[in-house]
Amino acid sequence: MWDWLFQFIGPLERAGIPYAIVGSVASSVYGEPRITNDVDVLLQLAREDAPKLAGAFPAGGFYVPPPEVIEAELARAHGGHLNILALETMAKADFYPLSADEAAWFARRRILEVDGRSLWFAAPEAVILHKLRFFREGGSEKHLRDIRGILAVSGAEIDRPALLADISRHGVADAWSRVQRE
């Protein structure tokens, strides 16, 4: 069931690239499962690591952006984003270079079992914040539904003081209020 996910995580692990799964895959693990065709992953990489990322995904099996695009995205202080496609399945991974303000999220990542494999996931607070930011940027209700699912299933695990501090710092209090109201 998760083979499409493993085709992206395996190369990262073999290349020794630190990662944390966020987005809908993480919200499905922490909350209510839903179908998705991509995976969002935070990557801890510096600009000079561009060849390492490009080399992790073999040509012919994956579409990988040109090295100069990878370098430019890794160099961005915040908001960098890379897409890698598995050509056989057309599954997609959205890779987000870790910014300085996300370092605390990354420090709280944890290993969870998925289909017998141990994978690194962002903490549920980080997944909620990630979803709140995407809701602010795009307005899609699916992000708020995912957050409600996380709160319903994993609410007791959530570090609410840390989450509330991050919500305030990242300017997503309006979206959080909406989650709480509905």
Order of helices and strands: HEHEHEHEEHEEHHHH
The domain count comes to 1
Count of alpha/pi helices: 9
CATH class: Alpha Beta
Strand order, sheet with most strands: 1-2-5-4-3
Radius of gyration: 16 Å
Shape: globular
Question: What would CATH call the architecture?
Answer: 2-Layer Sandwich
Largest sheet: 5 strands, mixed
Head-to-tail CA distance between termini: 32 Å
CATH domain fold name? Beta Polymerase, domain 2
Decide which structural class fits the backbone: alpha+beta
The count of strands amounts to 7
**Portion in helices:** 40-55%
Descriptive report:
The chain contains nine helices and seven strands; from the N terminus they run αβαβαβαββαββαααα. With about 180 residues, it is an alpha+beta fold. It has one domain (about 5-180): Beta Polymerase, domain 2, CATH 3.30.460. The radius of gyration is 16 Å and the shape is globular. The two termini are about 30 Å apart.
Supply database-style keywords.
single chain, 182 residues, alpha+beta, Beta Polymerase, domain 2, five-stranded mixed beta sheet, two-stranded antiparallel ribbon, 9 helices, 49% helix, globular
What's the short version?
It is globular, with a radius of gyration of 16 Å. The protein has 182 residues and is α+β, with helices and mostly antiparallel strands.
